[in-house]
Amino acid sequence: MTKQYDAIIIGGGHNGLTCAAYLARAGQRVLVLEKRYLVGGATVTEEIVPGFQFTVFSYLVSLLRTEVIQELELVKHGLMLLPFESTLDMAPNGDYLYRAADHWATYRNMARHSRRDAEAYDEYKLRMRHVAHAVRYMMNHAPPNLNLAGADAPALAGLARHLQHMDRDVLHTFVQLLTMSAADFLDQWFETDIVKAALSTSGLIGSMVGPYSPGSALVLLYHYLGEIDGVYRDWRFAKGGTGGVARALARSAQSFGAEIRTNAPVAHLLIQNNAVRGVVLEDEEEIWADAVISSLTPQLTYLKLAGEQNLPADLVREVKSWNSMGSAGKVNLALDRLPEFACMKGTTHSQAYYAGAFSFGASLDYLERAYDDAKYGAYSARPYIDAGIISVADPDIAPPGKHVMTCFVMYAPRYLKESSWPEQRAAFGDTVINTLAEYIPNIHDILVGRQVNTPWDIEERIGITGGNIFHGELRLDQMFGRRPTSRTGGYDTPLHNYYICGSSAHPGGAISGAPGRLAAMQILNDVGQGTMGNS
């Protein structure tokens, strides 16, 4: 049968779309196959409550690579990133920490708790910036495949040279971040609980770790690697919700000639002589291509689509032990009007804080206790909630005068010890609302509707195994050359012509486009060398 495409991308998430756009831009005939009715994967915006557009799963843009924005002309295709300039961290005791875009306002707000911490904050941010810039090399390069002996010697040598020239203090901090807990790391800089708790939460987002868990500092570092158009540590809302990012990527890919098919779930691969020749859809349609690229989780990419019988036994074992159990829920709220924060009554702050982020539960003990619940198979009785009112920055996603509030909730383990998520979903949503009521006295009065997503819902609705938003825990044994396995630390697989490009690949999850871009670069390199997929 005549091959119809140069490349088929399985899964229309943002990394799949990124990979498709780069391949099409290089002149490849590309087809994207998405099982749902719309593209985006976890990067989608949907109308759940009539008139209210929810960013259903993801909600912020912070790691989207500048190269992806510029090279794929995403602004031309509708990408608009909106300001997100402040954070209001609220402690259980009624206290708060407000960090604004104004440097000196932040200094004064922090000095209210501790002048020493206010002084240390600039030094801390500068050190983290230096580490992030040093680590950027790893974000922009495929990791050496440690399974190929001397085959990746140039990549290893390049990494060694980079580490050799890293500033000694920066390298020391980098090693600390790889191994320490967020709380212990921050203890070196700060003395007040609310400051340490507020900063430690970046080490918890989407991961089954507490502030005192070794390895949480690595997650903290990962969230410091972001930049938007070259502006370090810049966080933004996307116009139209995160679905706006997916729409821009899809339009970019189509402008370069890529085809996108929705409602097209893939059943399995077409494999001949250890080489992938195409895919078979669930309706039994066969589509052939020179290369097939999966943006799905390792479990789906290998065990479901390829089949255990076609893979090395040690790879199958590693995939089965890959930790992708979700730890977070997402609760989206439709509001009749803006919430009133108890901690801000009587303050002199303007209401500019509505355009930023809100953190509910800024206390190290509070965070650790929330984690303790999850360790023993229960959702947190008093969860940590990271939230934002996206409609303040983007009024078009809600009716006039109304608002959309998105809540990222820790912790919600994928498997509950004494029940199941379909049975507990409503109670979990109630727990979130009741927790918010401690900080927002009028929340019950202004609530119009809600959507509750647990890790079970994430897995069922968009196919992310375990409901883990990063496709796998961000921990040292699942990063860099071991993401997603020691045999496949790059983007190729043991099957010829078969590649990966999703969040389980290096450098990891979040809306970055980096795995999709790096995978496309490797595929195009293989095409140029005439070695498509030969591992």
Can you describe what's shown?
By secondary structure, the protein is of the alpha/beta class. Helix content is 36%, strand content 18%. It contains 18 helices and 20 strands. The protein has helices at 14-25, 66-71, 103-111, 115-139, 153-164, 168-179, 182-187, 193-200, 216-223, 243-255, 298-307, 313-320, 364-375, 390-393, 421-437, 443-446, 455-462, 514-529; strands at residues 5-10, 30-33, 45-49, 52-55, 81-82, 87-90, 96-99, 227-228, 231-232, 237-238, 259-261, 266-272, 275-281, 286-294, 328-335, 357-360, 384-389, 403-410, 447-453, 498-500. Helix 3 crosses helix 4 (115-139), helix 4 (115-139) packs across helix 6 (168-179) and helix 6 (168-179) packs across helix 9.
